[in-house]
Amino acid sequence: MIQLSNIFKWYNVGGNRSFVLKDINLTINEGEFVSIMGPSGSGKSTLLHILGLLDEPNEGSYLFQEQEVLHLKEKQRSTLYKEHIGFVFQAYHLIDELTVYENIETPLIYKNLKGSERKAIVADLIDRFGIVGKKDLFPAQLSGGQQQLVGIARALATTPKLLLADEPTGNLNSKQGEEIMELFKQLNQEDGVTIIQVTHSEKNAEYGSRIIELLDGQVVK
Amino acid sequence: MFQNYIKIAWRSLIKNRLHTVINIAGLSTGLTVTLLISLWVRDELTFDRQHPNYQNIAQVMINTQQNGILETSKTVAAPLAEALRSNYRDAFKSVVLARQAGDHLLHYEDKTLRATGKFVEKEGTNILPLQILNGKRDGLIKPNSIMLSQEMSQAIFGETDPIGKTLKVDDNMLVSVTGVYKDLPNNSTFKEVKYLIPWSLLAAVDKNYSKLEKSWEFNWFEIFIELNPQISMSSVSKEIKDLQKNILKDNTPLSTYSPSLFLHPMEKWHLYGDWKDGKNTGGLITFVWLFSIIGFFVLLLAAVNFINLSTAKAQKRAKEVGIRKAIGSNRKQLMLQFFCESVLTTFLSYLLALALAYFSLPFFNDLSVKSLYIPYTDLNFLLISIGFVLLIGLLSGAYPALLLSSFNAINTLRGLFSTSKKMVTPRQVLVVIQFTIATILSIGTIIIFQQIQHAKNRQLGYNQKDLISFRMSNFNGRNEAFRNNLLQTGVLSDVAQTTSPATDNWSNASGFFWEGKNSTFKDNFSLVAVSPDYGKTLEWKMMAGRDFSKDFVSDSSSVILNESAIRYMGIKEPIGKTIRWKDETFSDASYTIIGVVKDLVSQSPYEPVYQTIYFMQPAANFLLARLKPGINTQDALTKIKTVFNKYAPDEAFEFSFVKDDFTQKFSFEERVGKLALILTLLTLLISCMGIFGLVTFMAEQRKKEIGIRKVLGANIQSLTQLLSFEFVKLVIISTLIAIPFAWWLTNKWLENFSLKITISWWTFAYTSLAILLVALFTISFQTVKTALANPADSLRNE
């Protein structure tokens, strides 16, 4: 599904190149649940951003479903987001002005689905995530765990094949974190969603089927 | 999707309340000003457009050579009408001779009214934009007829049918009502014409008129023409140019004025009424342009606020942009969303502006002397409004939309977003534009008021205190008895008669000869006939010689000149010298100069006093009387009225204080000044709202920086300075840009006046300083608050 070859990413600092990623080669198959681990500054977030096309490497190639996806135009990129990729952020990144329901609905609007279809999908998700009672609340009225549930629900609304999560439990307490991780595992096993998560926690990493460890921009394991 | 945009836009407005209030307040103020100015401009541009054939109607005007310059006049000699008619039969559908509108007394049974009307030839009913309500359109065929405006008809006859009723006009004309027309609209040159009387009656009752009708000497009358269809105005205007010159032949005294004729089209009467050296130099059109530009600028300022605040808020919106991009929104959709917000804001502001305009319209009408209204139900108005809201919304939303939608998703989501330098510059430029305009307007307003004050402080040459003036028509022969009776009331200290009001000159003439006059010099004087008590009553100041006196029988052939006249004529030792007044038609007499009087400011307070000759003659149009000091005015007026009614039972007693009449002369400039003042205050208000909004967002953005600085030991004063300096810098730059512009503009304006102030540097200095202080005061609320904030809070939030 994903094939990264010879990915380099660097910043020029005072005439020197400071490498964030050095020669990353990585293959991830459909249905995998991958955890990327590593200390601060090891480049794991950058790697995730490159995987999510939010950032571009300086060198290398990235095949997504056998297709080169680097240097895409904005329009093609937004199509990829709409069709195939869902994001879950550490800071949830819900839209403050929208209710829970509307937050989940927004990507479907961008996908140009009809009102009735959107309604069905959102209702289904709300039901499944057990947030029916919260659907008319605004993000500020929810706890962190609940906000992250909404964030995941929103990411799943377009039924993406790939879910990218950047420290999804970083702002949560351990109990909330466990719930989210259970949810991920379930999504991976029952719905076949490919998941790549960045995490600090060994325990969370264990939920995945494979762990990639980064150190100083290189894959060490 | 669209519904979704509106929803988000609405919530976003509610959430950022301060921002929304500043935006809507600023934008609606700007829109109100624009709306009012548009109504005014529309009214001005539709002036004299009521007549279905207005494009074919014109007034015949004349240029004459006067001592080397071309003088343009709207009034021409009476025989010209016949000459035009017979020489250009094909061109003109009608040629109408008319007298300038004037006041006359209308009597009906026991009612007497003074009102303005016009003597016109019978085809005049086709030239004026009349809408006949009752009676005939061609009501001026018989000499003894009158056509009344609806208002006049109401005032005289009430609800009864006026047609066929007989009125007396002044004391010598009996006329019967043949028609009633709808009151002429305010934006018609003829708006003051309350009745029409046939020209033929004038000649029948006044023997002078039969002479005047044949004389080429007196350019006293108006001629209006209507062209036949398909005839070109400009080519006829060229054809008639030399008509009068050719008729007069060479070598006659009148031909030395080398008269040249032309047509001034009706559609230009109002807006293009100024002439210089025979050329049209515009006129009120300047104000139409000026106010349009000002309206545009005020709107621009309000739009600038909108743009500034939206971009200042960018940091807050950046996260939302990032999320939306990451969940599949493309740039077009994002821009559409921001446009929705700006259009919604504009729409709300426009609704508020309509309400504001509605409430301020009476005041604005008062100021502009118009009766404007908002045409709510007019479909065009609604369509234009909608178009306007969309346009302003899109224009002011364009830059924020482009900017916000351009954010890179990853940077905004990682929190790497910073107010980069690229965003600061346009905003600074916009603030500078705002304050430049505000400064220019402030300086301009101050100069206008200085100029008015300057003219008000002028030495008048007479005493206005307690001086009242009232009109009268027919006292000839009883002047002395009337005066004595008035003085016997005990409320007046003196009474005098004159042909011109104290605040105007009604009569001008040429044909004077004096020792040392150059034979090619074309003279012109103001003439005032007065009673012997005139000087005493007005308290004028004799500079040489003596005042008129009843004791000298010879004083009926004596004259008093003002100082300007002495300078104008170049006479040394004027007392005892003789001047001769000779014209072709009426007069040939000699007069002895017995005195020179200090100039009396009677016409424009901004112009030098015109050369004036005072005669002692019994003719009178006005009575001037000075109340004794400390007298109860109401009581005194009642007593005067009693005497007045005894001597003039047919006349309406209408008085005014000379001081008020004089104050009237400033009304135009004062109106302009007031309008400028209001616009200045609004501009300042909008600009201040703008920087207030900006400083609020800046304070938020720099919260962390301020917190760190505080922890490092910065005190409140230095922090306030730090925050204020950004804006102070911009205001100072604006001032530096504004001053040369303001200097140039105010000088240009002052060129309209002969007597004017010299602009002093402190006007600029003080105004700039004042604006700086206002700006500082505005931002101080926020800067001090930010500087006082507890660093623990701002740092913890991070």
UniProtKB/TrEMBL annotation, chain A:
<feature type="domain" description="ABC transporter">
    <location>
        <begin position="2"/>
        <end position="220"/>
    </location>
</feature>
<dbReference type="InterPro" id="IPR017871">
    <property type="entry name" value="ABC_transporter-like_CS"/>
</dbReference>
<dbReference type="InterPro" id="IPR027417">
    <property type="entry name" value="P-loop_NTPase"/>
</dbReference>
<protein>
    <submittedName>
        <fullName>ABC-type lipoprotein export system, ATPase component</fullName>
    </submittedName>
</protein>
<dbReference type="GO" id="GO:0098796">
    <property type="term" value="C:membrane protein complex"/>
</dbReference>
<dbReference type="GO" id="GO:0005886">
    <property type="term" value="C:plasma membrane"/>
</dbReference>
<dbReference type="InterPro" id="IPR003439">
    <property type="entry name" value="ABC_transporter-like_ATP-bd"/>
</dbReference>
<dbReference type="Pfam" id="PF00005">
    <property type="entry name" value="ABC_tran"/>
</dbReference>
<dbReference type="GO" id="GO:0016887">
    <property type="term" value="F:ATP hydrolysis activity"/>
</dbReference>
<comment type="similarity">
    <text>Belongs to the ABC transporter superfamily. Macrolide exporter (TC 3.A.1.122) family.</text>
</comment>
<keyword id="KW-0449">Lipoprotein</keyword>
<keyword id="KW-0547">Nucleotide-binding</keyword>
<dbReference type="GO" id="GO:0022857">
    <property type="term" value="F:transmembrane transporter activity"/>
</dbReference>
<keyword id="KW-0813">Transport</keyword>
<dbReference type="InterPro" id="IPR015854">
    <property type="entry name" value="ABC_transpr_LolD-like"/>
</dbReference>
<dbReference type="GO" id="GO:0005524">
    <property type="term" value="F:ATP binding"/>
</dbReference>
<dbReference type="InterPro" id="IPR003593">
    <property type="entry name" value="AAA+_ATPase"/>
</dbReference>
<dbReference type="InterPro" id="IPR017911">
    <property type="entry name" value="MacB-like_ATP-bd"/>
</dbReference>
<keyword id="KW-0067">ATP-binding</keyword>
UniProtKB/TrEMBL annotation, chain B:
<feature type="domain" description="MacB-like periplasmic core">
    <location>
        <begin position="20"/>
        <end position="242"/>
    </location>
</feature>
<feature type="transmembrane region" description="Helical">
    <location>
        <begin position="428"/>
        <end position="449"/>
    </location>
</feature>
<dbReference type="Pfam" id="PF02687">
    <property type="entry name" value="FtsX"/>
</dbReference>
<feature type="transmembrane region" description="Helical">
    <location>
        <begin position="21"/>
        <end position="41"/>
    </location>
</feature>
<keyword id="KW-0472">Membrane</keyword>
<feature type="transmembrane region" description="Helical">
    <location>
        <begin position="675"/>
        <end position="699"/>
    </location>
</feature>
<dbReference type="InterPro" id="IPR025857">
    <property type="entry name" value="MacB_PCD"/>
</dbReference>
<feature type="domain" description="ABC3 transporter permease C-terminal">
    <location>
        <begin position="678"/>
        <end position="783"/>
    </location>
</feature>
<feature type="domain" description="ABC3 transporter permease C-terminal">
    <location>
        <begin position="293"/>
        <end position="408"/>
    </location>
</feature>
<feature type="transmembrane region" description="Helical">
    <location>
        <begin position="381"/>
        <end position="407"/>
    </location>
</feature>
<dbReference type="GO" id="GO:0005886">
    <property type="term" value="C:plasma membrane"/>
</dbReference>
<keyword id="KW-1133">Transmembrane helix</keyword>
<feature type="transmembrane region" description="Helical">
    <location>
        <begin position="758"/>
        <end position="779"/>
    </location>
</feature>
<feature type="transmembrane region" description="Helical">
    <location>
        <begin position="287"/>
        <end position="309"/>
    </location>
</feature>
<keyword id="KW-1003">Cell membrane</keyword>
<feature type="domain" description="MacB-like periplasmic core">
    <location>
        <begin position="437"/>
        <end position="642"/>
    </location>
</feature>
<feature type="transmembrane region" description="Helical">
    <location>
        <begin position="727"/>
        <end position="746"/>
    </location>
</feature>
<dbReference type="InterPro" id="IPR003838">
    <property type="entry name" value="ABC3_permease_C"/>
</dbReference>
<dbReference type="Pfam" id="PF12704">
    <property type="entry name" value="MacB_PCD"/>
</dbReference>
<dbReference type="GO" id="GO:0022857">
    <property type="term" value="F:transmembrane transporter activity"/>
</dbReference>
<dbReference type="InterPro" id="IPR050250">
    <property type="entry name" value="Macrolide_Exporter_MacB"/>
</dbReference>
<feature type="transmembrane region" description="Helical">
    <location>
        <begin position="334"/>
        <end position="361"/>
    </location>
</feature>
